[in-house]
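[Q] Does anyone have a clean structure-token version of this?
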Amino acid sequence: MPNSQDRSIMRDIAARVAEVAALPVNEEKRRLWRKLNALHPERPMVMIDQVCWNEMEVEGELVLQCGDQECRDYERDLRRLLFQWKHFPVDMVVEPFVRVRMAVTDTGFGISVQEDTAVTDPTNDVVGHRFHNQFENEEDLERLCMPRIGHDVAETERRMDVAHELFDGILEVRAWGADPYLSLWDPISMWMGVEGALYALMDRPEFMHRVVGRMTDGYLSMLDQLESQGLLCQPQSLIHCTGAWTDDLPAPGYDPARPRTRDIWMFGLAQMFSTVSPGMFRDFEVAYASRICERFGLVYYGCCDPLDRKMNEVRMIPHVRKISMSPWADQERGAQEIGKQYVFSRKPNPALLAGSHFDAARIREDLEATRRVCQRSGCPLEYIQKDISTVGREPNRLFEWAKIAMEVACG
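[A] Here you go.
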């Protein structure tokens, strides 16, 4: 159990979080997210995530004080939450509870990543990767194992006891099950390298069908196991860095003790397919990802991959509600394709925060250009600023971006 000093520190921070969570603006933001996710927005919504926290320090606000590592993990998350609320809240919602990760175990596919890394900033967890290809021949396919899910009940109970000791009477404590992230091609790109995987798609297509087919079967088995053991998470607040509040979930028949895939969001992406043809995207991603996505209540699709030329294929994926429009997408074409059918989830280019100087006028024009193309096509719109690897060690750049984005969204 936490010592008295760590407990005192944590309860003080938790009290500040609870005070923010009780503000009426949080329920108003939830309402606006529900409207957007129902495809009837009142205005564009704005979210910031995946921040370069190593560059964010302002007057010691993020300095950790607890000694115990478990307490420090909670402290880090709550200090960051309060920091964001103070400096760049945009349309974030502060929830009146703490999620406690259940001790769910997953054996995975039996393949460990083999790589070389290049580090330019030791304080930043964004590093370069060169992955080694571990699927050179047919025999390597046999190394792919089927995932097995388990649950260390005693460890979950221990974690819950610690959380209750820290937060009872201030913030609700919630056990949080698996929140699945089931990308097919991100793992393959790390097992084979992007270049190795792309060459194999051309040179050995049947082999790659067997790889991705086996992974899909493994993911579906994993979902069966999570459902049968009651180890899935509850309906989410966020899905892939965007607000997940919706009146469409959970599905009828929902049991909080045994959440199902149809009660929650899923997100999918195939970033390494940015340059492949729509046909290859359909055959190697959509055909397999659809088997997974059809089980979920709602789906957010895409990330950095430009999808403006692949919307015919994206429409084949079941239950899609939001579609990523990355910095490399043609926004006009994407908006025309999306129309009023989906949320146009714009990812503004984080490079605009990373240059030699911050150009506020350029930031504003970039955001306004997106709003104009969405207005012409009637697209529900959200701005999701993410993948922020640096702000040139000037935190005020992000604070100013947030201010401008909210002016554009509310203007």
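[Q] Thanks! Anything notable?
[A] The mean pLDDT is 96.
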